[in-house]
Design brief:
With 123 residues, the chain is mostly helical. The protein has 8 helices and 2 strands; from the N terminus they run αααβααβααα. Helix 2 crosses helix 4 (52-63). The two termini are 34 Å apart.
């Protein structure tokens, strides 16, 4: 998890995960920030590193003001390894799925905007 949280071994400058999370929430409307901090959900294999949820919680909390710290909650279920797959499978089974998808050729050919516009979607 050290590489994910502290990128000391890379030559290029990169924000740490906790700093990135904090900055993204700070860009949101002020009245939504506490709600967002109370629903930090971890998913994916990288979040399974030992003590990752605890460390993320600790480092984000250090960036927050004292009044907001009580709202921070990091959700890390034991099944988070498969959370991205599960979410994608649910989304893929929805009726709306075909209208919000694009073909790989449209993406690579630069026709994604045209394809989505034909379906009534705007990118």
């Amino acid at each position: 998890s050290e590489m994910c949280i502290r990128d000391r071994y890379q030559r290029r400058v990169r924000e740490d995960i906790h700093q990135n999370l904090y900055n993204v929430v700070q860009k949101c409307p002020i009245d939504a920030r506490n709600e967002l901090f109370s629903h930090v959900v971890l998913c994916g294999g990288s979040t399974l590193f030992p003590n990752f949820p605890e460390r993320l919680y600790k480092e984000v909390r250090m960036l927050m003001n004292v009044a907001s710290q009580r709202h921070l909650h990091v959700h890390a279920t034991k099944r988070r390894k498969y959370a991205a797959w599960l979410g994608a499978s649910v989304f893929g089974s929805m009726d709306v799925f075909p209208s919000v998808t694009a073909f790989q050729e449209d993406y690579w050919d630069g026709n994604l905007d045209k394809h989505l516009a034909e379906q009534g979607n705007v990118l």
